[in-house]
Automatic annotation (TrEMBL):
UniProt key word Signal: no
Any Gene Ontology biological process: methylation
GO molecular function, one term: nucleic acid binding
Alphabetized SUPFAM superfamilies for the sequence: S-adenosyl-L-methionine-dependent methyltransferases
PROSITE patterns: N6_MTASE
Location of the Methyltransferase small domain: 32-122
Record Gene3D superfamilies: Vaccinia Virus protein VP39 (3.40.50.150)
Keywords: Methyltransferase, S-adenosyl-L-methionine, Transferase
Key word Acyltransferase present: no
The protein's name: Methyltransferase
Length: 246
């Protein structure tokens, strides 16, 4: 490993990821996204914008026997995803709005996505190119939602994690045929507004819309020490590969 990369442990060491030392680095968001997916062995998963593979490999660690495909725009991040997966996932370099035929001819039981969070019409670009591509929106968020829906099998599930203020765009972008929509807000502490949401929708789903109570990530009113202060349920998700059920 060269000095431009680090190796970082996720899920209590179950997943080891090579990541750039500088630039975009995966945090807890893709881990929470992966934990929310109720996949079963033998099912297929498409990770749109997989980066170095954090979400798809955390899901694979919790649910062995999945058939996983990751799509990543940046070739260097895609190569790290291949190395990190050690053959456990297929990784394809492509723009999600111009998927290759090998992806377009398939449908998946689950599609997951952690799209870029920031509309650069209203925010400042990151200096690092890799970080900017990961965080600064180029393809509209609505395209991510529509592509996720289109690549699903009938009765398949899409899961998207994003900033809470972008929730109206996500809800408005689901095409006809996507239903059983559920939203889980993620709030940093009790009494604080949710900063993130996980949105689940099912192809041909007929269930009523559900807005779940927020998942509180941290204990206490503020961070007072250098130690982690995740609540026990969240710590079990992040360290012990527990599912995030909602």
């Amino acid at each position: 490993m060269n000095d431009t990369l680090t190796i970082d442990a996720f899920l209590g060491g179950r997943v080891q990821l090579l990541q750039p030392r500088t630039g975009y680095r995966a945090g807890v968001d893709p881990v929470l996204l992966a934990a929310s997916v109720a996949a079963r062995a033998g099912q297929s998963v498409l990770d749109l914008g997989c980066g170095v593979g954090a979400a798809m490999l955390c899901l694979a660690a919790r649910v062995p026997g999945l058939h996983i495909t990751g799509v990543e725009l940046q070739e260097d991040y895609a190569e790290l995803a291949r190395r990190n997966s050690s053959g456990a996932a297929e990784v394809i370099v492509a723009d999600i709005t111009a998927l290759p035929r090998e992806v377009l001819r398939r449908q998946f039981d689950h599609v997951i996505a952690n799209p870029p969070y920031f509309d650069r019409a209203a925010s400042r670009e990151a200096r690092d190119a890799g970080r900017e591509t990961a965080l600064g929106e180029t393809a509209p968020l609505t395209d991510w939602v529509k592509v996720a829906a289109k690549r699903l099998k009938p009765k398949g599930y899409a899961h998207i994690i994003h900033r809470a203020e972008r929730l109206p765009e996500i809800l408005g972008a689901w095409p006809n045929g996507m239903g059983s929509v559920e939203v889980l807000p993620l709030a940093p502490r009790a009494g604080r507004l949710a900063e993130l949401v996980i949105v689940r929708a099912r192809k041909n789903g007929r269930g009523a819309f559900k807005l779940h109570p927020p998942l509180i990530l941290h204990a206490g009113e503020r961070h007072t020490t250098d130690a982690e202060d995740y609540i026990p349920a969240v710590k079990a998700i992040l360290r012990d590969a527990d599912p995030l059920e909602f």
